[in-house]
Amino acid sequence: MNVEPRSPLPADEVWERLDMRRALAARDLGTVFRLLQKHGTSQRTIAALTGMSSSEVYEVLRGRRVMAYEVLCRVADGFGVPRGYLGLAYDTDTATWLDANLVPAQTRTDHEDDARGHALLAYAAEVTVGTAGELSPEWASVPAAATPLPGQVGPEDVEQAEAVTAQLRHLDYRFGGGACRDAVSAHARWVDKLCELPSRPATQTRLWIAAADVHNLAGWTAFDVGLYTVAGRHLALALDFARQAGLPSLTANVLYRAGRVYLHRKRVSEALRFFQLGQLAAQDSGSRRTVAMLCANIAWTYAEMGDEAQAIIHLNRASDEFSRAEDTDSEPWVQFFAELDVMALDGMTKLAMARTNEAHAGPARLALERSVAERTDVMARSLAFEQGALATACLLTHDSQAALEFGELALGQAHRLRSRRVTDRLAPLRDLSLGLADRGPAGDAVRDLGRRIEQVLVS
């Protein structure tokens, strides 16, 4: 007699049983495994699907708790259930699966839709005439649902993706990464989905560029709020998409941002290497503006390393390259870098050198005074950086009153902007303020400023 082989996993409805859903939500894998065994899944099959050994499965069945994130992910993926069922990452795939499976299709009837429509209309009427009470729990939250994807990606889809990235980039400049990071991450996931869909070759290349650009921005906004590991992953994806697109100017920009992550964290050797690799890619691209940006950051890094000679050489080259840049040499990811930024980096480099040679404090102050005077709120975060640096330069030139003025402005920006970097960059000003020897009224006020910066830094 022929016997039809049993499936190693039970039917989908088993995963929707209340006892199974509760066990998954509680990460009670012992109960999950026992329920699977009741439906014909062997211990050996469970081990094979989850990547566990048979002895590990046996221990779980006897009560051993599993809390390791990696193991829980393997369990979800092995059984083909959304990770969200185990309280893990709730991503777009999970939302799509739930939307398709959590509510059986036969219950989503026209009658139900009509009833919901009437209920919403009734509540709208109550709100309009002023008789509405609290919103019904049914309407108080919006269930997750994936946005429908196009059947094929066309130029208009890529144009929309580019436009959204551009707007998010402006929000980052003006309000800090914390104001838009979640939106940037969501947009990056959407563009990733578009990259998986069919498209013409020219559209595909443009889409890879859009994906590299948005992951570059996602890494930058993650860095801005102190999520360094997340930033690194986005920047790696940006590099990969830029490689597929064959666009060295974008590769150079991603490497520049990676260098800034490491420079901010005082890991100057790694920062220098990223900037040097970026400089090579920038030279391959022919973009003088990008070369100037990399040279200016290399100068700053050398100054942090105490190498004044190399710092000055690269400052001079940055100025020379920028002076010869074409007006058309300004892709979206590098448009921000203007003459004002060359000036600001000149100031930052000389300020770093002033720590060991006070003769650089005056030139640093002059460069930063000019950049602060010309900077607008469109680039509020850059303005905050430069105000804090200028206050530090003023203290080094023994001008407590000016230091207090610019320091207060920088601290006010730190309170307004959603940027951990702005706060972190106030640390040198704090150190100088708290150690100020001036015992006059201005000196007391500067020390009070230092104490208030300290409160922000430790919060």
UniProtKB/TrEMBL annotation:
A Pfam family annotated for this chain is HTH_31
**Domain HTH cro/C1-type residues, every copy:** 34-86
Give the InterPro entries listed for this entry.
Answer: Cro/C1-type_HTH, Lambda_DNA-bd_dom_sf, TPR-like_helical_dom_sf
Q: Give the PROSITE patterns listed for this entry.
A: HTH_CROC1 (PS50943)
Query: SMART domains, per this entry?
Result: HTH_XRE
Protein name (record): Transcriptional regulator with XRE-family HTH domain
Organism, by scientific name, is: Kineosporia succinea
